[in-house]
Design brief:
By secondary structure, this protein is mainly alpha-helical. The protein is built from nine helices and no strands.
Length: 208
Amino acid sequence: MPPVVRPFRGVSAEDRRATRRGQLLEAALDVLGDHGRDGFTMTAVCRRAKLTERYFYESFANRDELLIALFDELAGRVSEQVLRAAAEVPADAGVATRYAAALRPMIGAMVADPRQARAYVECFTSDLLREHRAQVVRTFAAVITEQVLALSGTPARARVEATALLLIGGIHEVLHGWLTGAVELTEEELVAEFAGIGANLTERLILP
């Protein structure tokens, strides 16, 4: 018979584990944001979270698993913001307006929190996260695909999906360049460029 785990000060063991996991993820973002992947160690994360290694292994098998979890957490946050912004755009809004509304949360999150910007740059070049990055691209491309098909039922889905992948993949490349200083545009200029390119590609698909 398994031992009975009693609540501590009214907080269940499961909730305490979830809280510690959240502390480790937040500390991981701090460490990655401050020191990059070279300084991203279990010891550094535990020290920042003020937790022992015992609690690290309670949630993660190793540093790589933590990095994957952090990337997925950040990607999930941004995805929610983008989807919410896209859903709030008026039905009669222009295509460029739709793109701009969806892109602002993604870019704005990195401007507002330099840790997220550094984490994005670090994760972008990680071989470990290649498939996770690809999944994020596919998720955003699927959103664009459905929105374009809703504007007009005439384009073949395969054409729309290919164009959406091209657009989102390009956005991630340019965003990486912007964050590392290779692309010299303001935040609004970047949003406007992305929105304009997206609108042009979309119009190419839906116009006869």
